[in-house]
Design goal:
Two copies of one chain form a homodimer.
Chain A: H1 8-15, E1 20-25, H2 31-46, E2 50-54, E3 84-88, H3 98-104, E4 109-114, E5 125-128, H4 135-146, H5 152-165, H6 176-187, H7 192-200, H8 205-217, E6 219-221, E7 226-231, H9 233-239, H10 249-254, E8 261-267, E9 273-279, H11 286-291, E10 296-297, E11 301-306, H12 310-328
Helix pairs in contact in A: 1-4, 2-4, 2-5, 4-5, 5-7
Bound molecules: manganese (II) ion (2 copies).
One manganese (II) ion is lined by residues 32, 89, 115, 134-135, 165 of chain A.
Protein name (chains A, B): Phosphoesterase RecJ-like protein
Domain DDH (chains A, B): 20-162
EC number (chains A, B): 3.1.13.3, 3.1.3.7
């Protein structure tokens, strides 16, 4: 393992001779995870390589419309052999999932490409750039650096990665290059408005049921500066929640004008509580609060896992968060 | 009047010698109207010119945060004299409003810059480009063509114009140049995420109260293909609704995957019921259904006014709509 930063052209050089490549991303994949994996996979396949795209938790329903997602593998994995493995958008090696981690270990070379600044560099080669809004943007630069093919299907995945991880170019992580890349894709013929419609303007009735529950049950503290919601297994069962249904719900809490920080507590199958926290104020570092409970992430977007029951986890976390919020002003 | 297309560098040449300039846009201004007027106005003011920014209906609350909006004039206008007048983002001359049209008539030269393809070219000079997603994008190109100053305040207005008229770069009107311009603005130091936060990611708690009420009370018919909601005066009073609070709520109903048509019934102060109807299916013409009740509009977006009480109006309208929906399949 080495934490020396490897350039994208060096990574391209390492990929060029490889014939069999495995690519994975984090559990519970979002648009950036899936889009980065498939964007890179489809470019390498267009070069004639055999590419295994691995997602421990499979394809979220809302992203299944993207090209070739049927080729994504889920555990149990067959006994394939690979020359190189890549983990994308995954802050710690464990976050690829247990089976996927074992599958990646079959490769003599592991490449870690990420934009989570807390990523320790767990690969043999590491490219961790916390200034990039999406790993999809890094993958685009990698394809450019290597002269690798950028087909329409590749663009669909990378545009999805970039658009979803920037909230449609709205988050502060968006940089000039983000727009220039989107502009290059449109100039190359990408139908970005079709993607936007499929990503943002269509949702199942289940999602409205969840939104309704959240609006009915949300809790405010610290004069409305903290908004939170406890997403229980009882509700998950009631609405028969599917992966992707909760995407962006925390933003609805965050958007309320009085709110500085929004938190969702989610009861997982193993009884643990997944905490997702967002901040709207650079002075309020939610990754520090998540760090108190063994979690981490970005300053304005972080997570942690806590012991249940959910009410106790919420109370403990919100008390710590309120302490930080009250220090602001 | 001439409908010969004047190039942006010719328009820049016409503006350069002018010392006193009036700039207006359409009544009920949106982000593109206000942002285009003020983006151009602030650039010309930075060149030392006297610029009158005219909006018949004044500044919408949600855009008042933008730079120098306090300098926008509303009727009655003082008796200023101008060398050149411009109408921006305004498809017909009348749409600037009555007082504003009279004020623009004081100039010996009227310049019409627009992106509505139906614009007949009512100026002495006209630049109408229906391929552009926002007049703000045309104004940016005008400033570039003329070498006019593009300050941070100018960028704030033009970014707002472009972003709001493209639905944050999601509509099909978005082109490669749209992204390249946004990229240039970010490279020049524009804080676009602050603007996005103020434009899209901030809403009053009132708005969530309305959304919660809608999600709790919405009604489905025809196997979920019709979604509707009755927005009563009792609720309006309870949440103390303000103009703009209900913006886009019908889209939330429309986005549900099963839904083909969405309708909101709104109880008005005079006891009449305002009906807003949307269709997602070209075969379902909601303007025909609205026409049965004296209303009309477009095939996919229409309205009508009906006699109260609201429950009876809804029942009558939905029965007629369901009849049409059941003919589809
Ligand atoms: Mn990411
Ligand atoms: Mn416009």
């Amino acid at each position: 393992m080495s934490t020396i930063q490897t350039s994208l052209s060096e990574i391209a050089d390492a990929l060029r001779p490889a014939q069999r490549i495995a690519i994975a991303a984090h559990v519970r994949p979002d648009g950036d995870a899936l889009g980065s994996v498939m964007g890179l996979a489809l470019s390498l396949r267009a070069m004639g390589k055999t590419v295994y795209a691995l997602l421990e938790d499979g394809v979220p329903l809302n992203l299944a419309f993207l090209p070739e997602t049927v080729t994504i593998l889920t555990p149990p994995y067959a006994d394939f052999e690979v020359d190189v493995a890549l983990a994308l958008d995954t802050a710690t090696h464990e976050r690829v999932g247990e089976h996927t981690k074992a599958a990646l270990a079959r490769a003599p070379l592991l490449i870690d490409i990420d934009h989570h600044p807390t990523n320790p560099g767990y690969g043999h080669l590491n490219h961790v750039d916390g200034t990039q809004p999406a790993v999809g943007q890094i993958i685009y630069e990698l394809l450019k650096a290597g002269g690798f093919p950028i087909t329409d299907a590749v663009m669909q995945h990378l545009y999805t990665a970039i658009s979803t991880d920037t909230g449609s170019f709205q988050y502060s992580s968006t940089n000039a290059r983000t727009h220039h890349i989107a502009g290059e894709m449109l100039a190359a013929g990408l139908d970005s408005s079709r993607l936007a419609q499929l990503l943002y303007q269509t949702y199942p009735a289940r999602r409205l049921q969840l939104l309704r529950a959240m609006l009915n049950e949300m809790d405010f503290r610290a004069e409305g500066r903290i908004a939170s919601w406890q997403f229980t297994r009882a509700l998950m069962d009631e609405v028969q929640v599917q992966p992707g249904d909760t995407e962006g719900m925390i933003d609805t809490l965050r958007m309320i004008d009085s709110v500085v920080t929004a938190v969702i507590f989610e009861e997982m199958a193993d009884g643990k509580i997944r905490v997702s926290a967002r901040s709207k104020d650079q002075r309020l570092d939610v990754s520090a609060v998540c760090g108190q409970f063994g979690g981490g992430g970005h300053r304005l977007a972080s997570g942690a896992r806590m012991k249940g029951p959910i009410q106790e986890a919420a109370e403990t976390f919100l008390t710590a968060l309120e302490h930080e919020v009250r220090r602001l002003a």
